[in-house]
Amino acid sequence: MSGVAPVSGQAERIGGELLRVDNVSLSFGGVKALSEISFDIKKGEIRSIIGPNGAGKSSMLNVVNGFYQAQEGSIHYKGVTYAPMRPYIAASNGIARTFQNIALFRGMSTLDNIMTGRVLKMKASLLEQALYMFRGKSEELEHREHVEKVIDFLEIQAIRRTPVGRLPYGLQKRVELGRALAAEPDLLLLDEPMAGMNVEEKEDMSRFIIDVNEQFGTTIALIEHDMSVVMDLSDRVVVLDYGKKLADGTPDEVRGNQDVIDAYLGVTHD
Amino acid sequence: MEFLHAFFIAPFVEMVDQPWFLFEVLVGGLSAGVMYSLVALGFVLIFKASGVFNYAQGVMVLFAALNLVGLMEWGVPVWLALILTVIIMIGLAFAVERLVLRKLVNQEPIILFMATIGLAFFLEGFGETIWGSDVRPLDIGIPDDVWFVGDAMLQQSDIFAAVVASFLVTVLALFFHYTRIGRALRAVADDHQAALSIGIPLNHIWIIVWAVAGFVALVAGVMWGARLGVQFSLAIIALKALPVLILGGFTSIPGAIIGGLIIGAGEKVAEVYWGSLFGGAIEEWFAYVVALVFLFFRPQGLFGDKIIERV
Amino acid sequence: MFYREAGVFKTTYSDDMALLPIPLDKFFVLSVIAFMVLVVPFIASEYWLESILIPVLILSLAAIGLNILTGYAGQLSLGTGAFMAAGAYLGYKFVTAFPDINIVVGVLVGGLASAMIGAVFGAPSLRIKGFYLAVTTLAAQFFLIWLFTKQPWFVNYSISGVPTAPPREIFGFLVTGAESNETARYLFVLSFVIVFALIARNLTRGRIGRSWMAIRDMDIAAELIGIKPLQTKLSAFAISSFYCGMAGALWAFCYINIVEPSAFDINRSFQILFMIIIGGLGSILGSFLGAAFIFTLPIFLNNAATGLGLEVSTALIRHVEFMIFGAMIIFFLIVEPHGLARMWSIAKEKLRMWPFPY
């Protein structure tokens, strides 16, 4: 990861609180997936959530963007309290995400997939769309222009017209990032964006994440297994284990935490 | 006011007034329900083992009955015709696996579903091209006298059908619990990987389960054929197994049975006591509309597994 | 190398996003339309207009409707016939209740009525998928046909139960009913089909079309990026039924010239489903190809049989037809799920390379 410059230490990049998770508990039919989790995400930072398999990381993101509704606790986002958050509210207030198992629209082209990221910004009426006139046309053009910028940024010009189902895994991950970016999110949730990638692809993806964060000032919450990536990219890290919060702090603090070391080395729970 | 009376009061008064007639209606409905159950059973078997929603199950009933009748018209004795039809249905299972399922592995369920619609049309055309499409009586010695219970008149063939159906369900239950193949089939329903580790290839399981479903279709075809004659409308009637499945849940054998009985009895009672209020023939849609309403409240069916979605 | 896009450089997104970005395509489509409008009425025989072109055009419209729902939005429907019936019966009610209002409005009202009914039967689609939905659309199929058959209000208490289509004029030409001239009827139907095919094309490539496809391909992800599932699915049901309803009204007014339930039974639903599977799921062009193919194959079989001097009963031809359709459905689903439309574009691809294969 030598090509990746450390980004911590740029205090002016990071602002006040953007999102706060307050005492969130989530269970599925008696099985606790998350218990009493609290942490915050500051404007402009890269915040990682780590932990062993089954620690509740994905569930945490799902609660943040309202796909799962937690039984207890609340989400504070941009100064508003949501108990619980709902998917549509999350999306329309600038929370976008990618998924652990790629969730692209397989039958559609790269271009169309990324265009769906703009869906909330399009206001043309049914009639205008039917006739491809007025806003029906102007909107398409305007958003196409923005989507082309995303395509340039991610360097995927060549696969613009390819149905995403036919793309290799690494490119699919990139298109999925593109779809999230097209929404111009304030908070970007990335669920294992580098899972299953080789070193080169990981370097590319890390570069994109840093660029997004620096160029657009997008706040990022990241789930990732590759520790070197996490430690290099993140400003702060939350550690989950068995649905509980184990530690929270800068990469260095977390690295030195005894509970975290135990969890990762597999010390048995009593 | 008059309508409300006719809707909410008169039918129930009539039921209490003439309990034997109600009994007769119920038995008639339940015996139709047994038929729906038999078709639904075939659906559930295939759906559980392969995740394929087999629209052609209804036509398989017709196809089996057509073959049986056709063979008997050639002068083949009943027992031999039955055996030959079973062999034909097993052959069909092989053909379906080889020519359809194997080529559509890993396709979306909706594509497989549409493929079975194609299969249904093919089988119907094929069966009728060979055997013709006249309505034909099927007589394999099922008793067709009536019994009197109190003031009610019961068709012996209905009772016979119920007995055969219960026998069939028992046999299937035993098959699933006590044979190696049966256990493998149940394992497949739960987890495809696990089933592979038992050492039975998925292809064989598909063939077996389609053959069993073909056998169930034959039994249903014999029962329906004896009641109504063998004709195309069997396939349409068999479509009623779909709402039965909505009610019972797609993965539950008891659900298929109970769902069938509820639908059968329900539509008959609705037709007899309420049908004339609406101009009659509400039997045609009653089952579907019940299923539609049911879906709003309990989409997984009475006995189905709850669906949890993940990302 | 007659058909090519090389050398065609687009300098604006507006050009790139035009309906038909390749000039030759544009030329081709425009000439087909011109041919259908200007030449066909003069060269086609009465038989061709009345027994082939009119029904194929109307069925294409219905197939576009079902394709919007099933091909684009991924919601399977077995109730197309019923939604067509809704358009026919309610369009008939409107046209007879307001005899002075233009027949175009009558057809549109039939479509709108069908759209509302379609949305009602589509409502369960929020919670259920795939074959569950097939059952609810079957409910629509059996219930609506029963309703229109058994409730005499829908046919203005006509004694026979099958009223004739009311004769109506446009620009002084009769365009509906048995009395009307087949050329006038053909042009009337054709103009509906051209306008609404263009509209369907616009819808499917715009925001709403992308939302439909997103729901089709992965509904959960679609919801999480802000596409509202209920609104999107209901819009697909409503717009699909709108098309089917118009087709039903045209079928009754301009083709069979009576309003009867058996024209819209479950076999009609399957016929149109087959059209979109064989023509191509998720393709407007495919809807036309599928409709033409499925409608003319039986005619072709019949003629072939008589041409060969074979004595075959109509029943047998019907059975053979069933076998062929069934086998073709399976064949297309296995080999080319995008149907004839995809084959057409592969052929174009080949033509683009011609005469050099690489």
Structural notes for this entry:
- The complex is a heterotrimer of chains A (270), B (311) and C (358).
- Chain A is an alpha/beta fold.
- Chain A has 2 domains: 12-94 and 185-270, P-loop containing nucleotide triphosphate hydrolases (Rossmann fold, 3-Layer(aba) Sandwich); 105-183, no CATH class.
- Helix content of chain A is 37%, strand content 23%.
- Chain A has helices spanning 57-64, 87-92, 110-116, 126-131, 135-154, 169-182, 199-216, 227-233, 251-256, 258-265, and strands at residues 17-28, 31-42, 46-50, 72-77, 80-82, 95-97, 187-191, 219-223, 236-241, 244-249.
- A 6-stranded mixed sheet of chain A has the order 6-7-8-3-9-10, with helices on both faces. Chain A has a 4-stranded antiparallel sheet with strand order 2-1-4-5, with helices on one face.
- In chain A, helix 5 (135-154) crosses helix 6 (169-182).
- The longest helix of chain A has 20 residues, at 135-154.
- Chain A starts with 16 loop residues before the first strand and ends in a 5-residue tail after the last helix.
- The model of chain A is unreliable at 1-9 (pLDDT under 50).
- Chain B has one domain: ABC transporter involved in vitamin B12 uptake, BtuC (Orthogonal Bundle), CATH 1.10.3470.
- Chain B is globular.
- A two-stranded antiparallel ribbon of chain B has the order 1-2.
- Chain C is mostly helical and 358 residues long.
- Helices cover 71% and strands 1% of the residues of chain C.
- Chain C has helices spanning 13-16, 23-43, 46-72, 80-97, 103-122, 130-150, 182-205, 207-217, 219-224, 229-255, 266-279, 284-307, 314-335, 339-353; strands at residues 169-170, 173-174.
- Classes of the chains: A alpha/beta (270), B mainly alpha (311), C mainly alpha (358).
- Chains B and C meet through helix 5, helix 11 and helix 13 of B and helix 6, helix 9, helix 11 and helix 13 of C.
